[in-house]
Amino acid sequence: MLKRILIYCTLFFGGIVFSNAQTVNHTFALGDSTFLLDGKPLQMISGEMHYTRIPREYWRERMKMAKAMGLNTIGTYVFWNAHEPVQGKYDFTGNNDIAEFVRVAKEEGLWVVLRPSPYVCAEWEFGGYPWWLLKDRNLKVRSKDPGFINAYQNYMMEVGKQLAPLQINHGGNILMVQIENEYGSFSNDKEYLAQNEKIFREAGFDGLLFTCDGPSQMPAGYLPGFLPAVNGEDNPAKVKELVNKYHNGKGPYYIAEWYPGWFDSWGKPHSGSNADEDAKKLDEVLSAGISINMYMFHGGTTRDFMNGANMSRTEAYAPQTSSYDYDAPLDEAGNPTPKYYKLRAIIAKHLPEGEHLPQVPEKKRRTFGLEVIKFSGVANLFSNLGKPIESEKPLSFEDIDQGYGFVLYRTTLANAASGLLKIKELRDYATVYLNGKRISVLDRRLKQDSLQLDSPTPNSVLDILVENNGRINYGPYLIDNRQGITDKVTLHGQELLGWKMYQFPFATATGFKYLPAQNEGDLQPSLYRGTFSLRGLVDTYLDMKGFGKGFVFINGHNLGKYWNIGPQQTLYVPAAWLKKGINEVVVFDQLKGGHTELSTFDHPVLKEVGPPTP
């Protein structure tokens, strides 16, 4: 057994120098006004970045950029639905290898603040909860419901196996761990919060635990005896007042989420912040000795179908974009922005005399637009239906054991009929067809759930293609997140029965029959496939402005969603997912047809709000 050697390593604003030949033990504690690392004050200057939103190949590169900006700590959530996509089957490999993410941070001299509370919000599908919890209609997430607690506890035991050994009190670089997340914005059950703490301890998280809430939610969300961090407040006096109030009149003082940017929602203007104002605020916070976590330092991209949505009692359902650029200091592709350099200058101002920031690394890859990609084949969804599930009444996604993607609901109208067709509790977006011809689009954002239907002949086929546009990740409707047609369909007040449901989870884009590209006629949803050849690997952006609504796969990787309503009009393609030689692209479009080619850009387009959905 290697002898464990206790050494004190050189601190660079809390940064650490590690030796492969030694295991480093540290102590980390709460002082009356500051955090204490090995008994000495540590001001955390942290930046949030999520391993799931960054290709694994770029984790180290992004962390080097964080260190060069002056950060000494990385913050990250842990995403339950990424790690347990199927109940009882855990995935901590590839881009889900959170332990490796933490180890890379350690190698780069960065501490980690870990946020594995099962609820993450994060503009992430269902706030991080796995969809399969919803298969039980009566289960209540984020509560003392035994079914939820049992699933949560099983998951946390697996998380603990991965991450508990990496805590600072075990020789690792995880400084502290967050229990729950902004719980005060949801409820105020202190028994539930205490149960969280018990589960975390059983999972092996035996170091410092903390909670975080917005200023007005702190009374409901803090757990007595644990550090209450503040979200969304950057006035130093108010931060100290809040923490003192709920922490026995003392610190340390930590802003767990400070927002030098904001996320985007489909159909709304691009969000952002003023870099000069952000720099001024950061200067004030650091001057006051307060520790801070920038949410986000680097947002990256929400791939696959993992975007969430917001909805409240006063605001309509609002799904978020796949780009999680966030107007952050480091952009979606990992490039430093003007904001990056302004914040870097502020941090440099606060360095101890004689210390300097590392040089900003040069990016190893350039970003190029590629030659136009030609489509060689098209696969009409209606020609690739497969075997249906049959039921008298339409079933939700969860009822047919599907989490994401699309379900095509089909019934036959035995008689000629006309009247109001209403889909009660549509979740979330539907294209409606009569005898193969699209007759309407229904969008939950716009509170659309009905249309006038005229079926002049008997035995007409009614198709309703329903998309999960992102389960709600924040607010009171978090517990009401089943997808698809979740109630019933009526025509002129009469319930329609006798449904067939065809599943399109699109976990991959394989298994479809392609025909030579041609005009599809009635705008039926289709996949378009093409190939392109590369001699060298570059980052690039797909230009989706000529398309309607859908998603894109490149070489088996789901790049995320596009939608012509904007503001996002491009999809970022990381060079790590391309290869020299032949590459394959598959585009699904549910609104527009007749596509023959796909163009690329050397830059993102994130600020254009497009035309209304046709």
UniProtKB/TrEMBL annotation:
<dbReference type="InterPro" id="IPR008979">
    <property type="entry name" value="Galactose-bd-like_sf"/>
</dbReference>
<keyword id="KW-0378">Hydrolase</keyword>
<keyword id="KW-0326">Glycosidase</keyword>
<dbReference type="InterPro" id="IPR048912">
    <property type="entry name" value="BetaGal1-like_ABD1"/>
</dbReference>
<protein>
    <submittedName>
        <fullName>Beta-galactosidase</fullName>
    </submittedName>
</protein>
<dbReference type="Pfam" id="PF21317">
    <property type="entry name" value="BetaGal_ABD_1"/>
</dbReference>
<feature type="signal peptide">
    <location>
        <begin position="1"/>
        <end position="21"/>
    </location>
</feature>
<dbReference type="Pfam" id="PF01301">
    <property type="entry name" value="Glyco_hydro_35"/>
</dbReference>
<dbReference type="InterPro" id="IPR001944">
    <property type="entry name" value="Glycoside_Hdrlase_35"/>
</dbReference>
<keyword id="KW-0732">Signal</keyword>
<comment type="similarity">
    <text>Belongs to the glycosyl hydrolase 35 family.</text>
</comment>
<dbReference type="InterPro" id="IPR017853">
    <property type="entry name" value="GH"/>
</dbReference>
<dbReference type="InterPro" id="IPR031330">
    <property type="entry name" value="Gly_Hdrlase_35_cat"/>
</dbReference>
<feature type="domain" description="Glycoside hydrolase 35 catalytic">
    <location>
        <begin position="34"/>
        <end position="349"/>
    </location>
</feature>
<dbReference type="InterPro" id="IPR026283">
    <property type="entry name" value="B-gal_1-like"/>
</dbReference>
<feature type="domain" description="Beta-galactosidase galactose-binding">
    <location>
        <begin position="525"/>
        <end position="583"/>
    </location>
</feature>
<dbReference type="Pfam" id="PF21467">
    <property type="entry name" value="BetaGal_gal-bd"/>
</dbReference>
<dbReference type="InterPro" id="IPR048913">
    <property type="entry name" value="BetaGal_gal-bd"/>
</dbReference>
<feature type="domain" description="Beta-galactosidase 1-like first all-beta">
    <location>
        <begin position="394"/>
        <end position="504"/>
    </location>
</feature>
